[in-house]
Each structure stands twice: as structure tokens, then as C-alpha cells.
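so my prof wants the structure for this chain in the C-alpha cells format not the other one, which i didnt know existed until like an hour ago. anyway here's the sequence
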Amino acid sequence: MSKNCSELMPNDATHPATGSSSQVADACKPDDIIEATVEVAVEAIIGLGSNMGDKIGNLDLAIVQLATDPEIKVVARSRKYRSAPWGVTDQDWFVNACVVVKTTLSPHALLDRCQRIETTMGRVRRQRWGARVIDVDILTYGRAAVQTPDLVIPHPLIAQRGFVLLPLRDVAVDLVVAGRTLDDMIAALDTRDVTPIN
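here's what i got, hopefully its the right format
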């Protein structure tokens, strides 16, 4: 049986509920996290975005698909935000949100479910940071750190994206990533183009 790496709780990803953290065990590598059998539900945070078609409806549908998965339970959701495009600016505005889920899936199995939702909803990957029907990204997975070619957790661009940070603060106000609070990261950005949708 694979090593249980539920103890992987680096200082740069403090759990929003407990505020506690611990050093990553040297003997516990990223592959152990991926392959470990998850026996207790882990709290993960997922970011969503859309700038094609019915943007709000696309987010709602993706959340429904997450919620109907027997191994995923949606326990909290942020407000929806309108945001300017990021990375590639010559495209339509986005709607973004975050949801907190509890899941017994491993990080890579959860990634597979998220990508399956994207594919089912018609996402075609033509351009990095380009227009998309839906984007479903894992932002955090408990207090675990994952570093593999196809998955990095916590998401490496959290601190650069106001459209992630503002909805993330709605559902995990005390979250600390890489030693920084959400408020600290938000204060370092111009977030005037990220506004809640009433």
C-alpha cells in the first residue's frame, strides 16, 4: 500500500480552518501524495472561470457537475466576479468564482475529474490563457504540496491573479499561501477590474 501523505502540511499552505502547519517530511515525495489512497475526505479549493457563451451559466453547470460526483461534495461557494482578461488581453471579460469541496479523490484523480468537466462542456485548448468555455483549476488540496509536470499545488499563479484572490477570500479568508495572507496578496495588486456580480 502507498505511503499515506496526509501529513504533508508545508508552512506555505496553512489550512484556513485550523491555521496550523508543519514541515514537509523529507521522506514523503510528491508521487506518494498522488498515489496514496485517500481514506478521509480532504478539503480542496477549486477556481472556475468562463468568458464564452453564457458565462454565469457555464460556472453554475460546472459546479453542478462537481457536486453530482459521488466522490466530491461542494461545501461552500464564493460570489461570482466579473474580471478583465489576464495574460491574453484581446478577448472578452470573464466570470470567476471559487468553490470549496471535500473529496476522497487524490490530487491527480481530482485533476482528472476537473479536466473531464472541461472537456464535457466543450473546452478546446487552442491558446494558453485564451478564451475558454470553462476553466476548472485546483487551487489548494488540504495543506498538501504537489509538484509534478502536470500539476502544481498550491496553484503557482494565485498571488498574481486578482480574479482568483477575491473569490478565494470569500471562502477561505484565513488561507496562507507561501507565507502570505490573501489580504497581503490582494493589497499588492490592482484589483479594480475584478468586481462582484450582483
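also thought this was worth mentioning. The helical segments are 30-35, 55-67, 107-120, 162-171, 182-187.
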